[in-house]
Specification:
Blueprint: H1 7-25, H2 32-42, H3 47-78, H4 84-93, H5 95-104, H6 111-124, H7 131-153, E1 165-170, H8 184-195, E2 199-203, H9 208-214, E3 224-226, E4 231-234, E5 239-242, H10 248-260, E6 266-271, E7 274-279, H11 285-294, E8 301-304, E9 315-321, H12 322-334, E10 341-347, E11 354-361, H13 366-377, E12 381-385, H14 390-408
Parallel strand pairs: 1-2, 1-12, 7-8
Antiparallel strand pairs: 3-4, 4-5, 6-7, 6-9, 9-11, 10-11
Length: about 400
Amino acid sequence: MSRKVGMRIVKSCIAAYLCFVVYMLRGQKGIPFYSVIASIFCMQPLLSRSLKVAGERMKGTIIGVAVGIFTLCLERQFHLDEHLWIHYLLLAVMYLPVLYLTVITHNPASSFIACVAYSSVTVSHGFDVSPFSWGINRLIDTMIGILVAYVVNCIHMPARGKRDHLYAVAVDALPEGEDGVLDNYTKVRLNQLVERGAHIFLYARGSAAEAERKLAGYTHRFPVCILNGAALYDPKKGTFTAVESFSEEAVGKLGNLLEKNGFSVFTYCVSHGNLQVFFDKLEDEAMEKWHDSRSTLPRENYVCAYRPADCSVQCLRVFVKEEQRASFADALQREGADILANIHWEADDACPGWQILSLYPLAASVDQAAGKLMEELHVHELNYYVPEDQETWNVWVFEQWHKKQMKKC
């Protein structure tokens, strides 16, 4: 199957040519080989990744060049280069400080580059007239390559029209790999869209911990909507923000209704940036399984205690046997629960034969949470997208992000 030439390949070629151009503009000073290698090495699919790789390469180069200069100065001071056995033994031994410096400076990823830089100074150019001059020129060549890669990687297709839309994308429906994390293609595409200015608002049916695990490697720009829009989770800070809460009157009425029908309740509260889940007892098998599977997750703190009075409530959750669902749904309607809360039913995959009943504040919804974000961003159109499979995701990325813009250009 034929594959298209990607932009990363094209940009790498452009960056290599620009490195040669800079070399000629400098009067052919330096060695363009090192600039070209640095530019290609730093050319990554994402600008943020390019900056990270550039930083690693620069740190590694500084360490390698510094140790290399020290080694050559040591050799020349004691004329060790006149004895090849001692010369090469010293070169080999000095890899120890090179690698150790990358460890103690917390830059293990730059160890390879540090060794390459050290080798280029001591092995390839060990007999140059001035090791110090060579080392400085090596740093300059590397910096040129890094800057060229950064400038070229900043080049994007025109995309002005996208910034007046907010795209609400379902986390649960995004394509994922075998490990349950976003597949690499989806992750790269999402990050590229965010870097280029797209307003992508993610909402999750599950917990913040589940969403965070699936979205590993995604560069978040906005908080993730959870609990049907009643709360937002900010992965950058690891904190929660309440968007909508039940009134104390509504909590009291709903709590009495659930208790009267013999249900124990998981009460979800956002307090001081944390998500607390209060319960008084694990009434049935479904609650026990839910608690056991969730209590070890980060971001959700399960507390066997009554809810403190100063904690606002974002969700009430109970477990109902499937054969009781119809009768209990009628009871909820008779008692007027539908005018106090948004009522959501879903199957419990972990415990067959049970249904999860979630009650959210009446005003809470993904629409409402997205609306507040739209006001902050001054955008006027909300588009929902729930990808069915990898192919529909690919089509959406192209149509929503590229096709409309090329028509405008």
